[in-house]
Amino acid sequence: MNWNDVIKMANHGSPEPPRRVEKSEAEWQQQLTPEQFQITRRKGTERAFTGQYCEAHDPGRYGCICCGTPLFDSNLKFESRSGWPSFTEPMADNVIKYEKDTSFGMVRVEVMCNVCDAHLGHVFPDGPEPSGLRFCINSASLKMEEKQLQ
Question: What's the structural domain count of the chain?
Answer without folding.
Answer: 1
